[in-house]
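Record Motile sperm domain-containing protein 1, 209 aa.
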Amino acid sequence: MHQPKRQPELVEGSLPVFVFPTELIFYADDQSTHKQVLTLYNPYEFALKFKVLCTTPNKYVVVDAAGAVKPQCCVDIVIRHRDVRTCHYGVIDKFRLQVSEQSQRKALGRKEVVATLLPSAKEQQKEEEEKRIKESLIFEQSIQPENKVVSSGPSFLTVFLGVVCIAALMLPTLGDVGSLVPLYLHLSVNQKLVAAYILGLITMAILRT
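=>
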């Protein structure tokens, strides 16, 4: 009799964890930012259970800090800042997402998300703009006029990766019938989830430039 193949046992901490975003910024003067959402993706063929830990749990409320994610699904984790005071401005806190198989206790993967409270979104944007202008002036003064290069917008590599991810999402999924695209170009749901995750990161990077 042929015995069923066993899935290779995963080493503790070796499983990649897909969570978006990887940074939370709360603004004291904007109550709409006091509640934010982390999305945990599970692109794997098995269910995961998760747990959210925090370095300063007294400052935050995590709705459903523990739970499960079905295979090839995602779950939203709501995080509320409940201690908006000036003494917390600029302090970096950390959340840790631990995931494991439902039948195991050991954490197969971990991912850290940083959280920061800032006084004002407008002040932050103004400071960043002043910083960019200052850095631009210093750069222009440090090079010869004939060697100045003006660069704006996303890099070629970023655009190329974005186009590849979009193309991957447009390809047929495994199991689709009647497609004219060759079978070897059909992607699994797992592969499309990864492409969507990478495209989200690229989009955030472009928006911040």
